[in-house]
């Protein structure tokens, strides 16, 4: 479902609350371009958990293949430019 920013401005957050009951996600368009996504917090948390799971799997694979550096935090920060 796509909602314009103007509709949201006019109809308010209660408008979104009603739409979320029917649609799993709502896209908000600004000046005709899709810019934001609104979804229930449970779905957001599920997506964030999936991202974290993927990051852990990638880190484990890197470790198994020896793609890591053992160094102090200070050396790491210097290497990455912090």
Write structural notes for this entry.
- The chain is α+β, with helices and mostly antiparallel strands and 82 residues long.
- A 3-stranded mixed β-sheet has the order 1-2-3.
- The protein folds into 2 domains: 2-39; 42-80, no CATH class.
- It has helices spanning 5-11, 13-22, 41-64, 73-80; strands at 2-4, 26-30, 33-38.
In spatial order, strands of the major sheet run 1-2-3
- Ranges where pLDDT stays below 50 over 5 or more residues in a row are none
- Annotation, overall tally of beta strands: 3
Residues in β-strands, percent: 15-25%
Tally of individual domains = 2
Please bin the fraction of helical residues.
Answer: 55-70%
Let me know the largest β-sheet.
3 strands, mixed
Tally of separate helices = 4
Q: What string gives the helices and strands in order? A: EHHEEHH
Structural class: alpha+beta
Primary descriptors:
elongated, 82 residues, 2 domains, 60% helix, alpha+beta
Topology readout:
Elements: E1 2-4, H1 5-11, H2 13-22, E2 26-30, E3 33-38, H3 41-64, H4 73-80
Parallel strand pairs: 1-2
Antiparallel strand pairs: 2-3
Quick structural gist:
With 82 residues, the chain is of the alpha+beta class.
């Amino acid at each position: 479902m796509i909602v314009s920013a103007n509709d949201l401005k006019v109809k308010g957050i209660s408008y979104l609350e009603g739409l979320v009951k029917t649609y799993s996600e709502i896209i908000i368009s600004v000046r005709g371009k899709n810019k934001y996504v609104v979804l229930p917090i449970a779905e957001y948390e599920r997506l964030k958990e999936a991202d974290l799971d993927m990051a852990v799997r990638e880190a484990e694979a890197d470790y198994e293949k020896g793609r890591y550096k053992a160094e102090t935090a200070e050396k790491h920060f210097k290497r990455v430019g912090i």
